[in-house]
Amino acid sequence: KAAQGQPTRVVLLGPPGAGKGTQANAIASRLEVPHISTGDIFRRAIEEGSDLGLVARAHMVSGELVPDGITMTMVSRRLGEEDASKGFLLDGFPRNVDQARYLDETLRRSGDVVELVLELHVPAEDIVRRLSGRRMCGQCGRSWHVEFNPTRVEGICDTCAGSLHQREDDHQDSVRRRLELHERETAPLAGYYQDKGVLSRVDAVGTVEVVSERVLAVLIAHSAGSRAEATPS
Ligand code: AP5
C-alpha cells in the first residue's frame, strides 16, 4: 500500500511532449499504482492489429482525438481491473471536459474522486523540439530523446536493448494538429480541476531529473497536507 496520505487517484495533464510518459513510471511506482496511458493502450492495439487499433490509428496518425465513446469504454474497462482498485495514475485521459465528467461519474459510483491533478507546463517552442527528437523503444515502449535524453548507443534502448523508432504522429503536420487540439480541448481542463481544488502546476522545463524533483516535491507537499487534515487538532 502507498504511504499514508499519499494520493492514489492521480491525473497527469500536459500538452503533447510535455514529459508525461517520461515522468509517469517514477510517479506510479512511488504511489504504488498502475500507470494507465490511453496513448499506450491505443498503440498496443495498433500493434496487435485489433479492430480498436484500426480505428485508433486512423485518428492518431492525423493528430485527431480517438472518438470519446471508444476511449471512455476502454478506460472504464481498464479502471475496473483488479490492480486499479487501489488507485491509478492516468496519463492522456481525460483529454476534454466530457471525458473529465465521465471519469468523475465513474469514480463517484465507487465513492472515489480524483485526488490530485499534476499539470506539466512547457512552452510551445520546447514542445516542438522535444517531439521532433523523440525516439521510442519498440520493445519496452520507453521514450528517449536524441539530444535531451540520449541512449548510450544510438538507436538502441538502454533499458532493454530494443531498437528505437520515431512515432508516426511525431511528424510536423500531426504535431501541429495535436497542439491545436490540446489548446482547444485539453487546456480548459486545468480550469475544471482548479475549481475542484485538486490542480498542481509543475514547471516542466529543465532536465528530466530536475522536473522529477519538482513532481516529487508536489507529491510530498500533498501527502503532508492530507496527513495534517486527517490529524485532529
Ligand atoms: P498520447 O500517447 O497520450 O500522446 P500525447 O498526449 O500527445 O503525449 P506524448 O506521448 O506525445 O508526450 P508526453 O507528454 O508523454 O512526452 P514524453 O514523456 O514522451 O496520445 C497519442 C494519441 O492517442 C493522441 O494524439 C490521440 O489521438 C490518442 N489519444 C490518447 N488519449 C486519448 C484520449 N483520452 N481521448 C482521445 N484520444 C486519445 O516526452 C517527449 C520527449 O521529450 C521525449 O523524447 C523525452 O525524452 C523528452 N523529454 C521528456 N522530459 C524532458 C525534459 N525535462 N527535458 C527535455 N526533454 C524531455
TrEMBL record:
Entry keyword set: ATP-binding, Cytoplasm, Kinase, Metal-binding, Nucleotide biosynthesis, Nucleotide-binding, Transferase, Zinc
Residue span of region NMP: 37-66
InterPro entries referenced in this protein's UniProt entry, alphabetically: Adenyl_kin_sub, Adenylat/UMP-CMP_kin, Adenylat_kinase_CS, Adenylate_kinase_lid-dom, P-loop_NTPase
Pfam families per record: ADK, ADK_lid
UniProt GO MF annotations: AMP kinase activity; ATP binding; zinc ion binding
EC nos: 2.7.4.3
Gene3D superfamilies cross-referenced by the UniProt entry: P-loop containing nucleotide triphosphate hydrolases
Binding site for AMP: 38, 43, 64-66, 92-95, 99, 167, 178
PROSITE patterns attached to this UniProt entry: ADENYLATE_KINASE
UniProt-listed GO biological process terms: AMP salvage
Region (LID): 133-170
Reaction catalysed by this enzyme: AMP + ATP = 2 ADP
Pathway(s) where this gene product acts: Purine metabolism; AMP biosynthesis via salvage pathway; AMP from ADP: step 1/1
Cellular component terms per the entry's GO annotation: cytoplasm
Annotated residues for binding of ATP: 17-22, 134, 206
Annotated coiled-coil segments of the chain: none
Signal peptide start-end: none
The record's note on its domains: Consists of three domains, a large central CORE domain and two small peripheral domains, NMPbind and LID, which undergo movements during catalysis. The LID domain closes over the site of phosphoryl transfer upon ATP binding. Assembling and dissambling the active center during each catalytic cycle provides an effective means to prevent ATP hydrolysis. Some bacteria have evolved a zinc-coordinating structure that stabilizes the LID domain.
Subunit structure: Monomer.
Alphabetical list of PANTHER family matching this protein: NUCLEOTIDE KINASE (PTHR23359)
Family classification: Belongs to the adenylate kinase family.
Protein name: Adenylate kinase
Gene (name only): adk
